[in-house]
Design a protein that fits this description.
InterPro entries: GntR_C, TF_FadR/GntR_C, Tscrpt_reg_HTH_GntR, WH-like_DNA-bd_sf, WH_DNA-bd_sf. By secondary structure, this protein is mainly alpha-helical. The chain has 10 helices and 4 strands; from the N terminus they run H-H-H-E-E-H-H-H-H-E-H-H-E-H. The C terminus is likely disordered.
């Protein structure tokens, strides 16, 4: 059975973000095919996609390598997110469906509950799902794709500290959803811009490869689990 290239791409990207493939390291088709349990064809296609996304570069005499972004490039990503997430929220206020609102409100309820209880272990995941759903509600495939790529690259380049006041952070999420539900695009944009600006302060540029991220994978045979891939 042929494994889709997008599934291989997701697996390689996830491992780059997790630090399994170190910045600057070579990515040979043969080793990657063996690692993910696929042929070289989907690996080759995946590497082309990852190069277009900025995770991989092709170097003379070395071939495909994990990119080594500069601090300025990393800073630019946060600035772009600060511009695009508010735009997405404004679009969501005009284009969201009842299904989007149901999911967003459910995430806010869960987030607020966990924040009040002080169980912050899964708050980051809930926050990621919230912003992913908000982007989906924009109804713009191009904007959704750009925001998704930004989230991956920011997660690769930055460590994010837990908000000093998680309850306040989820109150902000709730206010954004209220504005989206009312169709108030300008308020949704303004609230999201403020929320994104505050969240940016919690980002710390990663220097090198954190040891705990290296523990992500021990087994050199890392077959692609298609059922678990979401992107």
């Amino acid at each position: 059975m042929r494994i889709p290239a997008h599934s291989v791409c997701t697996a390689i990207r996830d491992d780059i973000v997790a630090g399994v493939h170190e910045r600057g390291s070579r990515l040979t088709e043969e080793l990657l095919a063996r690692r993910y349990g696929v042929s070289r064809v989907p690996v080759r296609e995946a590497l082309r996609t990852l190069e277009a996304e900025g995770f991989v570069v092709t170097r003379r005499h070395a071939g495909a390598c994990v990119a080594e972004p500069t601090e300025q490039e990393a800073a630019d990503l946060l600035e772009m997110r600060g511009l695009l997430e508010p735009l997405g929220a404004a679009r969501a206020a005009q284009r969201r469906t009842e299904a989007h609102l149901k999911v967003l409100r459910g995430l806010v309820r869960l987030g607020q509950e966990r924040a009040r209880r002080g169980t912050s272990d899964d708050l980051r995941s809930l926050g990621g799902w919230f912003h992913e759903t908000l982007a989906q509600a924009s109804g713009s495939p191009a904007l959704i794709a750009m925001l998704t790529q930004l989230r991956h690259k920011i997660a690769w380049m930055y460590a994010v500290e837990t908000p000093a006041d998680p309850v306040e952070s989820w109150t902000e999420h709730g206010a954004i959803v209220d504005a989206v539900a009312r169709g108030d695009g300008e308020r949704a944009r303004a609230l999201t811009a403020l929320h994104t600006e505050r969240a940016t302060a919690a980002h710390r540029l990663r220097l090198g490869r954190p040891r705990e991220r290296a523990e992500h994978v021990r087994n050199p045979q890392h077959a692609v689990n298609k059922a678990s891939l979401r992107h």
